[in-house]
């Protein structure tokens, strides 16, 4: 009997439904379909929507333009969660409308942190090192690098 291979990431269905929900939510926010003063004042991006394996919980990662006022925007989205879920149910053809929750997208912060690490002196020192020639051993390379 063949062993079942455990998947490490989301399934194709989770990815596809997440993308459909992301598009629907982004369209609702862009058109102003959610009547809320806080949401009307902000341009909000929806970089990702992750679904649970049973497709009953959608975690929507959001970020206001410029990263400002994230707390009031999350609060406004939570206050309108029921309306948003109903709209998603109408726009995305699913057997069950998933429960939605909203989280701050931190991927931009993480990308900035990685850029800062890659731009650090320690990493630059390692990447500026001269490549090792085939006829040169490691000790010789370190001596030539120390002369720089």
From TrEMBL:
<dbReference type="InterPro" id="IPR020053">
    <property type="entry name" value="Ribosome-bd_factorA_CS"/>
</dbReference>
<dbReference type="InterPro" id="IPR023799">
    <property type="entry name" value="RbfA_dom_sf"/>
</dbReference>
<comment type="subunit">
    <text>Monomer. Binds 30S ribosomal subunits, but not 50S ribosomal subunits or 70S ribosomes.</text>
</comment>
<dbReference type="Pfam" id="PF02033">
    <property type="entry name" value="RBFA"/>
</dbReference>
<dbReference type="InterPro" id="IPR000238">
    <property type="entry name" value="RbfA"/>
</dbReference>
<keyword id="KW-0963">Cytoplasm</keyword>
<dbReference type="InterPro" id="IPR015946">
    <property type="entry name" value="KH_dom-like_a/b"/>
</dbReference>
<keyword id="KW-0690">Ribosome biogenesis</keyword>
<protein>
    <recommendedName>
        <fullName>Ribosome-binding factor A</fullName>
    </recommendedName>
</protein>
<comment type="function">
    <text>One of several proteins that assist in the late maturation steps of the functional core of the 30S ribosomal subunit. Associates with free 30S ribosomal subunits (but not with 30S subunits that are part of 70S ribosomes or polysomes). Required for efficient processing of 16S rRNA. May interact with the 5'-terminal helix region of 16S rRNA.</text>
</comment>
<feature type="region of interest" description="Disordered">
    <location>
        <begin position="129"/>
        <end position="148"/>
    </location>
</feature>
<comment type="similarity">
    <text>Belongs to the RbfA family.</text>
</comment>
